[in-house]
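Q: My labmate handed me this sequence with no annotations at all. I'd like to see what the chain might look like in three dimensions before we decide whether it's worth expressing. Could you predict it?
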Amino acid sequence: MKTKATFAELIKGDKPVLVDFFATWCGPCKSQAPILESLKSTMQNEVTILKIDVDKNPKAAAAYQVQGVPTLILFKKGQIKWRQSGVASSAQLQQVIKNAQ
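A: Here is what I predict for the chain of 101 residues:
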C-alpha cells in the first residue's frame, strides 16, 4: 500500500507542484478555487495542485513568508519557480506551469 507523500517529498519531484495558500474566510480564495479545479481538469497529470489552509498550517505559511491569501507558489525539484499573491487566471497559471517544465 502506497503511503501519502509528505509536502517536502512532493515539492522535490520532477512534476510541478502548485500550492494554494488560502483561508476559509477569504473572499478572493473562494474565487480562486474554481479556477484551480478548471486547471486541474485541463492539465491533469502535468501538475499537482495542493491547497494549504494557513489557519490550520501556520508553520507552512510562515516557512514561505505567506503574508496574504490567496498566495500561489509553484515548486519544481524543491525550488520556487513562481509565486503570486492574489487571484490568478487559469490561462496565466497554465503558462507559468508550462514555463516551469
